[in-house]
């Protein structure tokens, strides 16, 4: 019996069970998890900063609505001036 157990331990062929995870698969899974977590944090910061920018703009222009009107008027005049310089009719 002892000889059989030693023979089985020294047997060179190893049968890989596909339902188990080896160290490389675990490492790749952990790396992909970290990349996914980093991307989620990046998108969260990006979305949060865009939302805060919109919130600040809305609060600024509702507090001072004349500044919004002046901004829109200056944009409109700038477009009209560019069109007149290029010779585009109204």
List the helices and strands and how they pair.
Blueprint: H1 2-9, H2 23-63, H3 65-86
Helix pairs in contact: 2-3
Q: Please report the distance between the alpha carbons of the first and last residues.
A: 101 Å
Q: What is the mean predicted local confidence, pLDDT?
A: 76
Low-pLDDT residue spans: none
Q: Strand percentage, roughly? A: under 5%
Number of separate strands: 0
Main sheet characteristics: none
| Separate helix tally | 3
Order of helices and strands: HHH
- Percent of residues in helices comes to over 70%
What structural category do the secondary elements indicate? mainly alpha
Radius of gyration: 33 Å
Shape: elongated
What's the quick description here?
The chain has 90 residues and is an all-alpha fold. The protein is built from three helices and no strands.
List its traits.
90 residues; elongated; mainly alpha
Walk me through the structure.
It is a single chain. By secondary structure, the chain is an all-alpha fold. It has a domain of 57 residues. The chain has three helices and no strands. Helix 2 crosses helix 3. The longest helix has 41 residues. The radius of gyration is 33 Å and the shape is elongated. The termini are far apart. The model has no long low-confidence stretch (mean pLDDT 76).
């Amino acid at each position: 019996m002892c000889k059989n157990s030693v023979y089985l331990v020294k047997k060179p062929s190893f049968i890989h069970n596909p339902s188990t995870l080896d160290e490389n698969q675990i490492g790749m899974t952990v790396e992909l998890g970290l990349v996914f977590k980093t991307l989620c944090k990046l998108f969260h910061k990006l979305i949060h900063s865009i939302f805060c920018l919109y919130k600040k703009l809305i609060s600024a222009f509702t507090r001072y609505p004349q500044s919004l009107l002046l901004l829109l008027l200056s944009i409109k005049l700038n477009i009209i001036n560019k069109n007149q310089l290029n010779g585009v009719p109204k």
